[in-house]
Every structure is written in C-alpha cells, then in structure tokens.
Batch of 4 targets.
Target 1
Amino acid sequence: MSRSQPQKKGSVKFVSGSKTLFFPELKKRVDQYFENHNIAKSGGFRIKIKTLVLLALYLVPFGAILFANLHWAVSLLMWALMGLGMAGLGMSVMHDANHGAFSSKKSLNWAMSHILNLMGGSTVNWKLQHNILHHTYTNVDGMDDDISNKPALRLSPHAEAKPAHRFQWWHAFFLYSLTTLYWATAKDFMQWVTYRRNKVNTMTKAEYRWMLAKLIMIKAIYFFVLLVVPSVFFDVPFIQVITGFMLMHALAGLILTVIFQLAHSLEGTSHPLPDHRGVIENEWAIHQMNTTANFSPRNKILSWYVGGLNYQVEHHLFPKISHVHYPAISAIVRNTAKEFSIPYLQNDTFFKALGYHIQFLRKMGKMPDIDEAIG
C-alpha cells in the first residue's frame, strides 16, 4: 500500500468471521435497552428542539448583520455567534442526519442532512469521506481521509515524516481554523476528482456530472448570500463582511476539527496497518475500540453542544443511533468491553484529551516514519 494515498474502497479488509462474541453481545444488550425503555433510536423531540436553537444561533445573528446597522465590533460578535452556530449544526444536526439517526423518517434525515449546504459543503462528499472511509477504516493510513498526510500536518506514524511536521503542535491549530473555509472553497472539488479515481464514488457518468453542477450552484449561492447580499443590498461595508466571514469560519473550523481530533488523534489510540494481504488482524468492532476515545463524559453542556461527539466510542459502534442516547448506552458499552477484556478509551476532561492530542502532534512531528524505520 502506498502510504497516505487514498486507496480503492474494499482494498483493505478486517478479519472475517467473529473471533469473539463481543459485538453480537453488545448489540443485543443495546437493543434490549431501547426495547425495555420503549424508545426509538432516533433523536426524537430533543434533537428537534436543539436544531431550532442552533439554527437560531446561526441565522438570527445574520439577520442582525443585515438589518440592524451594527457597530463594527458588534457585527464581529454576530459573525462569531454564527461560527458557533455553524459548528453546532455540523456536530449535532447534520452529523446525525447523514447517518440516518436524526429521525426515523428518511425524508427528514435527507432534509436535515442538507443543513451542510448552509456551510457551503457537499452532503455526497461528506458521506463518502465520513460514513464510508472514516467509519470503516478508522485511523488506517491511506484509507481514512481524516488522518491523511498534509504538507504541514502529520497524523499517522505510518505517514511520511517531513521537516514541516516538526513544529506542527504549534501551527496545527491555525490549520484547523482553515478547515471549513477550505471545505467551502476547494475540498469538495478535489474530492469530486479523487473519490472518482479511487472508485469510492460509484455514480454513473450522468450523476457524476450533475454532482459537479450542484457543487458549483451550492457554493455560488452560499458565497452570494454570505458575501454579496450584505454589501450590495444592505450597504454593510465589504471589509466588515469579509472580516466577519473569515472570523466565522475560523471559529467553526477550529471547534469542529479539535472536537474530532480528540477522538482519534491523541496518545492512547492505535493506528493499525494492513498486512501484505490488505487485511487488518482484528474485527471491525474491536478495531473501533482501539482507535477511538471518549472525553469529558460528565460535562452535560459540552455533550449537548458537540452532539455527543465526546462519546465517539458509542458513535463509531452505533452510528445509526442518535447522539442523544449515547450517555445512556455508554455504561452498557463500557461494562461489556470490560467483560471481554477489550479497552474502553476515555479521558475524563476536555483539557486532558487536548493535552494528549498536543502530545500526539509533538510525537508525530519528531518520530520517523515507522515503515521506513522498520525497512
């Protein structure tokens, strides 16, 4: 396998069969929990209320920017609130919807998944990167796009080490702040090409061309509404608009990326590599337990805002269950893992997890490429 290069879907496989009864037993216990409490696995009224709150956090400040003739400083505060709303919608609403966990109704999941368009992103590409590549091949170099090597960022011990990575623990957070802006401008078009080449995107030629047309339309509308409308139709100074727009994306990008990094790219999680046959010597569920960590489980405010992404262990094992249920089923997962002597990775606080992430960045910046060292 060529390290850090996207591979074809299916070129990496997990050990077939069931080496342990861990996941069948865990699934039975979790299903029993929902049956005993007579509740659905979708988000229910709680996620719908949260959606209204987060949509208001994103849209109301924009309305104030357009209609209230705000002072520069107050305007920037509104853009910052929009950044908080954008990140919250991404983590709590769009994420569940794209996994089919927002609602038991497919039509509502479809509608809520397109909240991603409010951020200038593509639902199709997101599902390919996140649902298929990340959730299947978590922390596998060359398969999981979330840890793919960047010119100035290294997130896998199997990726090529470069001089630019040495001080990444300093500049990584600046790069994180560019995530959503890169997403809205270039990333979707790059993935449109890449996922076709590596056969992750299996659309027909007509569907593939229509996808490009939709990408262009979505982004044109997004930038027109956010950048052109305030200046041209509401006389908001363009320098004020572009400054606020950049602030919104910087805040949203930083929040989203840090929250996701604290689940996989930190001290304690593993980065397995397939053998010469392309096989990872583990079952998929145990692989998830080894590559994923929870953090700050007792912080209810954080859990609410990040959409349960501090319970990533539960999410990776049961992505079609809404995040509103993760705190309840976490005890089932933890106790079952203990019975089967399988690690359940968890950091008690956000800052402890953040510290482990910074340690990981420092280590990846200094240590040589494992594959080169072995060779």
Note: The first helix runs from residue 22 to 37.
Target 2
Amino acid sequence: MTGTAIERSGVEATVAAAGVSVSRPDEGLPGRGAFERVVGGVGAAAEVPSDGSPTLVDSVLVDSRADQVGPPSAATPAVPVAIDPSALDAAGLTFADREAGLLSTVVPDGLSGELVVVPGSEPAPAPERAVRTVRVEVEAGLDVDGEMFARTVMATLNDPRGWGADGSVSFARTDGDADLRVVLASPGTVDDLCAPLSTVGEYSCGSDGAAVINDKRWVFTTPDFADKTLYRQYVINHEVGHLLGHGHLECPGPGEVAPLMQQQTVGVAPCIANGWPFPDAA
C-alpha cells in the first residue's frame, strides 16, 4: 500500500509514501482551531490543532475489518424499493434523502460494530472494461435502508460521469468476495474501523480496499454543498477514487469546476462544487 487517504468533514489528510498534505477544517464543523500544515518525512501525517499537538502522526490504515462481516449470503437480484412521498414531511426528509436510503435524520454515536452485507448482485454495465466488484455493507442499527444505499452507491459508480467515463473501468455489485468495499457506519464505529487514523466521530476514511463513510456526513453532508445528493455522489466517488489510486488535487482557479479529488469536504471555494471524475462526460 503506497498511502492512506482520510477524508474528514472539516479535516482531510493523505498519508503518502513521501510527505503529506493536510487541510484546515471548514466552517461550522468540529476542529476549527486546526490550521493547514505540511508534515515532511516518509509516511508521516498530522492535522495540527491550534495548540500545536498533532492528532494524526505516522498513520496507516491496515485493518479492513473483514473479520466483522458475516458469511456472504446467496446473491439475489436487487428489488426496487417504493418511496411514499406522503411520509417525507413527517420524517423531515426530502425525496433525495429517501433515495439515498435515509429513514430518519437520527445518527447514533456508536452501535455494535456489526457490519451487514447488503444482499444482492448486479453485473457491470460495461463488461468489456476492467471490472471491479463492489460489496456494500451497512452497520446494523443505522436508520438506513441498505438496499437504497447500495443502489445509490452503484448508480454513482457507474454513472456516465463516473470513473468509467474514460473507458477504464466498470463496477459490478456482489455480496461475496469483492475488490472494493463501501461501508456506511456510525461515527463511533468509523473511529474503530479507521484506527489508527484519528476520525474523532466526525470523519470518513478510505484505504486497504474499503471506503468507510461516516453516517453523520451521509445524513448532514457539508455546508459547501447546497445539493446534498451531489455531496453524497462526491464522497462515494472521492473515497473510491483513493482506492483506485488517485491522489488529491487542488482547485485550479476561481470559478472553475472543482476536480473530484480536491478536498471539497474541507472547502470548495474558489471552485464550484463537483461530485464527478468526468463532469462533462455525456
């Protein structure tokens, strides 16, 4: 493994083989006392609070936590889930929230840590390309429809603007052994799964074949994204992008569309928010 990426809602750090970059937090989220700093040295990374003490040093995520996942169930076709628009106002959710799998805006701090594989499989839409299999997992006890979450994950990954727009890759879903895992978990469980990276109940991480998404970010997203769906597409594509070997990029200039691998959770300006590797693809 050449490096580990950790995305934080407010802090995003990349652990690379030769030095790292760490960015400041965004407005309104924990850790605002931190400031941008680059820490040199092989394999070293730190997000440094205002008191000067590092919260993340020499960190590499090595545990995929596959041991927490039970035996895969038999593959079954995905079944569309009906959404009742009349229930949206009572739950305080939008139609887009429901499509993302949310059943409420309740985010538990921590649960049992049991990760449940969402049953179902679907073939890659472009099998002539290199096919990467994806297993979707949701922590037991989250107020989330796992099938809807899985459908969002796969629709995002196989969107015409996604990583396959250059003809390089296509994604197939499986509930068995997989190349990549996309995991939705409570803040406390994310801390456990991402250790020794310091996610302090707020952030997400991606490494070692797993994109671990913090349910708090999935529910509330970040202030720089007015469109929550776009943020959710961004966080899936960005974390999976790290698993595909892509590093961080900078905003190219005021008014430009942010590259997907820009640390947009940390801040989008002066660029324009973007959730896609190839936003101009047909």
Note: Residues 1-81 have pLDDT under 50 and may be disordered.
Target 3
Amino acid sequence: MYNSYKLALKYLTYWLKASNGKGHGIHSPFVFEFITRVMNDEEYYAEYKKGEALREHFLRDKNEITVQDFGAGSAILHNKNRSIRSIAKSAAKPRKYAQLLFRMARYYQPEHILELGTSLGITTNYLSLARPAGKIITMEGAPEIARVAGQHFMANHLQNISLIPGNFDDTLQDVLQQLRTVDFAFIDGNHRKDPTLKYFLSLLPHIQNHSILVFDDIHWSSEMEEAWKIIREHPLVRCTIDLFFIGIVVFRMEFREKQHFTIRF
C-alpha cells in the first residue's frame, strides 16, 4: 500500500492529466454517454436516502466483531476485533462512489450483478435499490462481517440479494457456474495483484459484449497498478475508464481499437 503522501502525489498527477470530466473532446459515444448521463447525473434519487441511512446506522454502531482479513488489509491472516463503526468508516465505499455504482446499475440495467467484497453491504444495498428486478450475488470472506451484512439485508427486505460467505478461492467458481453470465461486477475483495488478476480471468468466460467490470482502488499500491495495467492490455478488453479510485472495464466490440480514458471525478 502506498503511504498517504505518495498516494496524494499520484492523485495530484491524475487530476492534472485527466480529462475534465465534462465530456469535452470525448469521441467515443459510449464514454460520452457514461460521462454525461451517468457519472455527471446530478439528480437526487430517493434511494440515496435509504443507502445513506444504512451507512449512518453502521457509523453509530459501537459493537465489536472479530474480523478475519483475507486481503491486503492485513500483513498476516489472523483475527482482529474491530467495531462495526470503524469498519463502516474505513472499509465501506464513500458515498460518492457508492452512488456512482447505483447510477451505473440503474442506467445499464444489468440482470446479473456480482460483488466481490460485501463488507457491511452498503454498496450492495445501493446496487439492490438500483436494480430491484436483477439478481445480485455478493461475496464476503470475513464470516462475522457477512453475518452483520446479511442481517440488514433481511431487515430491509432486500430479497434480490444472495450473500455468499467464505474465501473467494473456495466459493467463486461455484458462484460463477450459478450465474453463467456476469453483466456487472464490482471487485473489491483483495487488493493484491495476483488475486485481482485471478478474479479477472475467472470472470472472463462469463462476460458478454455489454458486461461491465469495476475494480476498486486501482492505484492503491504498485501491485494494484500492475494488475490494472495487465487488465487494460488484455485482448478482450476494448475500453477502460480510470477514475483513480476505481477503474471501469468495458468489452463492447464496437470499440474497434482499444481506448483508454482517464477522467476527473
């Protein structure tokens, strides 16, 4: 993981070099539409209130749970006691990005959504609200965190969510066999190069022309930047959009040549 100073420098470089985020000079119809109708959609949706109510609930929760960390958040894998509010503060995706994922799911209307890394389920909640007729499978490696998230899915009657606890190495292939096709995926489960690439390659047989993959924290470390570079260069990837904290991958064959965009958000 980059220290805060280096990450800030990287963000400054990104901000100075990125397109202005208004769509000016973007000749790709898909990317222009994404910028103008999804990324910069300023309408306040009623579902935002529901999504943030869940976040506020967790931010007030002082109860402690035992967390088994399978990802890059832990140097060695062992159990740790953490308060739920500390997890909500540090591990949950910020409102800006959770609501962008909501708008993406609302606009593109994916039938099958996969999330690797439920955490407390805040982004899962947003995805469910955006696509109530869709099927959402969310996966969480830490059993106690999965338990807390599952309780709130049930309490909020989010019946289109299936929560799969357990290490992704043990559960992902079975999940993909159930889904067959992945229309939209948010990969936020392990911030290391090799696992990220493994998840990407596992998803590829299940993607279609319209599929969209979103990778979290693509500039979080040198490892994640290496993974992002390899993903961008894969022959099936036709377009990527770098928003610094997340990276979007598109497979649409109408992109006759690869196109990569870095856009301010």
Note: Residues 74-78 have pLDDT under 50 and may be disordered.
Target 4
Amino acid sequence: MDALSEKITHVIKQQREFFHSGATLEYEFRHGQLLKLKQVIQKYEKQICEALFADLNKSAEESYITEISMVLSEIDYLSRNLKRLMRPKRVMTPLTAMPGTGKVIAEPYGCVLIIAPWNYPFQLLMNPLVGAMAAGNTAVLKPSPQSANTSSIINRIIKEAFSERYIALFEGDIEVNQDLLANRFDYIFFTGGLKFGSYVAECAAKFLTPVTLELGGKSPCIVAPEANIALAAKRIVWGKMLNAGQTCIAPDYILVHESVRSELIKQLKINIVDHFGANPEVTPHYPRIISQNAVERLAELMKSSGTVLFGGNLNKENRYFSPTILADPDPQSRVMQEEIFGPILPILSYKTIQEAISMINSREKPLALYYFGGKEEAREVTRKTSSGGVCINDTILHVGNRNLPFGGVGQSGMGRYHGKHSFLTFSNLKGHHRSFTFADFKFRYAPYKLPEFLKRFL
C-alpha cells in the first residue's frame, strides 16, 4: 500500500470513529457547521470567482449565479429547515399493529464519498456536501483535476473550516478516484459521465453501498407552432450557451415544427449576437471549453454530419469554440449519438408531435426535457416521455427550484437532491415501531384463532 492509499484509509478510519462518537448527530452541531461553511465561502467569494475564471473563463456574474449563490441558497434552506427535517415523522398505525405507534426516523448513513466533475466544479461538489452535512454524515470529497484552480480554493476552504476527521478532501487524477473507490463508504454521490458513473456503481456494488449517480445525456428541446418563437429562441440560447454548453442539462438538440423552423433559426442567430456580440471570443461573458482536447472533440462532432448555419469557429490554443447552429444532422451520426457538452446546437424538424415524441422515446431517457408551446400539448409530451426533469417554455430553471427534486432516470442517472431531497438522499429513513404493554391480542399467536370480523382489517 502506497502513502496515498494509507492516508485515505487513515482518514476514513478517523471519520468513522468521529461519526460513531455521536458528534454529528445533534442539531446544534449540524446547524453550526453549515453556518461555518457559509461564512468561509463568503470570505473566499472573490477567490472562487477568480479560480472559475482561470478554469473556465466564467465571468464573476455567471460564477456567482450558477455556482456560489446555489450553494449559499442550499445552506440557507437546509439550515432554516433543519429542525423540521430532523424531527421524526409520525405515521398511522394499522389495527394489526395496535396498541402501538409508528414513526420514521431520518438517520445519517455515516461516512460518505462525493465525487464531482469539472464543469460546475464548485457547485457540484459543495451542494451535495451541504446535504451530507445537514443529514449528519462525515464526508470525503474528490474534485476534478481538470478544474485545478477551483479544486485548490475548495481545498483551502475545507481545511480552514473543518477537521479531516469530519470533512476531508483529496485532489488528484483517476488513480486517486480508484484508491478512494477501493474503500468501503456508507454512501457514494457521483456527478459526471456515464462511463465513469458505471465504474463507480460497479465499485459500490462490491460493498453493497448505495449510490446517487448524476449523469447526463442528450436533453431534447421541442419547439411547437404555438410557441412564442422570439422568447423561445432567447431562452434556448441562454440555456444552451451557459458555461459554453458544458452543462449536463443544456438543451442538447432542437426538434422544431417545420412550420416555424425558419423563424426559429433566424431568432436563434439574432439572440446569439445579442448575448455575445458578433465575435463571442472577445466578450467577457462567454466561457471557454475546459481543455484543448475537448475543443478537438467538439470539432469532430461538428464535422460528423449536418450543415453549419451559424458559427463553427474555434481557437484551440484559447480553448474557444463559438456558438454554433447545426442543421439536419444524421440521427445516427456522432453529434446525435453522443452528449455534445459544448456550444453546438443541432436542429431537426418534425411534422407531428407524435413524431417528435417517438424520436425522443427511441433514445435513452434524458436528464431534462424542454418544451415550448401550448399547455395541452405540453401535457401530452410530459405524459408520453420519461426524463429526469421537465421545463415548459424555458430552459435550465427547474434546477434552481429548491422545492423540486433534481436527478436522472435510466442512463441519465439515479437518485435525487436539492433542498429537502438532499437531506433525504443522505439519510437512511428508518421505520420505528413501539408497542404498548397495556393490552395484548391473542389472535397474533399460535395456535391461531382468527375472528371472522378481523379479516377485513388485515
């Protein structure tokens, strides 16, 4: 065993001892630690923004809106509602379990592992951590090495705020992930791609460890004739080009009714220029692709099929890839088979809504589904398709609603979090029954003599 493996094993052992001491169980401890985390994040807000700019060229405004504010909001929600969430929930007791009472107790799992990706490197590591802390767990964190600057500032925040026996962070490449996953945890929360997510699930299965997998996929966007085309284009451009398309719930491709196709394309072009100017490479509000290799991959996807109607420019050295509209790619081409994870927006036409629904259902279940159009057809699309989440007449916003569970289905993931769902994800919901001793029913015991009238209650 090398030094890193020994360190990981030692930290996990320390965290288990700390957890079993009962220190994390009390409301006062959990609430106090959440507020401490908030204070340290606010202290380092400027440095977090600088790190996100260095990694992804995110403006300070985009960094705050899509990363920092979401974590602070999660802390505020869970700290404000923590007593209510921790309180055992009484349930009805059937006649067969009388005399007695039942309740559900939310208990922490123990030592949890949280593995985060590079695209929203602050939010997607810290948001699950907030849920794990609120639920009373200890945690080991693993940020992505591709967002090294953000990883470094998070490491600084964690070390300043917490002891390793409570919260620990390990930086490094895939070998560190492998070392971590070779150990037994009580829960694993992973955000990233399908391939590595499958590996995480495989490692967890060896210990029968429960997991949440937040993955991705090709999230479709339907634009119907009834849609407000100008507004739809504006909101699609915003959702697609956020973080230069490197968003797991970004609209991956558009299915537009043939009657409004030309107008939608026109409005998409207008809105791209309105948002980022004639040359997005020079605007301070357009992020960069995470690496030169990722730029090359996007270039290959763009070339795989379809006609470039807008954009298609890149600068590998600057990690820049322009907002791009791609018309009529072959449904079997790479750009329509792989999650794009960049600012390429394929557009295909449909004639009937059933045709669009059939195309969506012929693919793996997406993390998100977007629909612009009328209420009745929106209901039909929602009812006849399956996706992690649905957003009608907008994009992305469902992820910002604390009261909605966020997560995938099928190959787009499993498990839910955000708000109370974060607390529940990191809690074992333990059924608790207490029988009273003032009465005891003989029909429970052998030799059984069941009165006829009691059958209706069983």
Note: Residues 60-86 form the longest helix (27 residues).
